[in-house]
Q: What sequence folds into this?
DNA sequence: CCTTGACCTTCCCCTTGCTGGAACCTCCAT
DNA sequence: ATGGAGGTTCCAGCAAGGGGAAGGTCAAGG
């Protein structure tokens, strides 16, 4: 299967798939014409990567998860630890964003939003 | 005032301040020895930028906000629109992260996390 | 007067995770 | 044979700076 079909079936852009090969996440065979030839196992990996990335795992995490996935003698504790650390990062990020949201909402509701120059948002940003 | 003091007073790293000058957000004068000489107005801008960045505004937004801040005849509606758009982006991001958090939490609570290889997290990622 | 150390300057490369484009090759249908 | 839709490589660039080298400057201490 060529890269276009692999892209369509995995849901990943062809560029992304080439990038993943570049950094060693997948290693499709090559046909005699130099085209990448994706086997089912490659497609499976790509789909795995797509789901892991969609859950926000970094490429480094994905590499580790893929290695664990392919290691039949892994301990699930290792996977769980990775996932828990990632979950903690997600929660921290949510907290940050919620703080921003709160502050920004306060400023926005105080702003008349008309054609006059007076603006509580700018006052807030300028340290008022 | 030299860049070190400007950094200490604005709370921004010196590197960041140089970068902001590079992209035209601040334009401190230069002393005869070539050192940047920050006036109070520069410091004020830096602090403004620090607060805007802390609220998650992009550099592009910051540039626009700074221009509005310095325009005495601005309409507050313009500022409010910018802020509301940013708020919407923040809320969308929170929603994304919460979706990830939910899925990931489900997987994590199902995983024994012991030394056995069976792992619902990996099963989930592999499309099970 | 000289040196030391802290500070400043510019410069360029590195990061994350791709994305776009140029130049070129290959395959299939007409 | 030719046109267009694939494929290939490599190069550049995005946000928003961070790290560190090579060198200039300044104030204090011996």
A:
């Amino acid at each position: 299967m060529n890269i276009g079909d692999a892209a369509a079936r995995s849901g990943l852009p062809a560029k992304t798939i080439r990038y993943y090969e570049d950094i060693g996440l997948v290693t499709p065979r090559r046909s005699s014409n130099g085209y990448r030839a994706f086997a089912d196992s490659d497609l499976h990996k790509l789909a795995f990567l797509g789901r892991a990335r969609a859950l926000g795992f970094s490429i480094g995490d994905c590499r580790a998860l893929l290695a664990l996935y392919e290691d039949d003698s892994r301990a699930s504790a290792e996977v769980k630890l990775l996932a828990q650390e990632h979950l903690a990062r997600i929660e921290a990020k949510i907290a940050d964003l919620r703080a921003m949201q709160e502050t920004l909402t306060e400023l926005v509701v105080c702003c008349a939003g008309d054609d006059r120059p007076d603006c509580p948002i700018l006052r807030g940003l300028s340290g008022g």
Remarks:
- Residues 2-4, 14, 18, 33-36 of chain B lie near DNA strand C (CB under 10 Å from a C1').
- The CA atoms of residues 112 and 119 of chain B lie 7 Å apart.
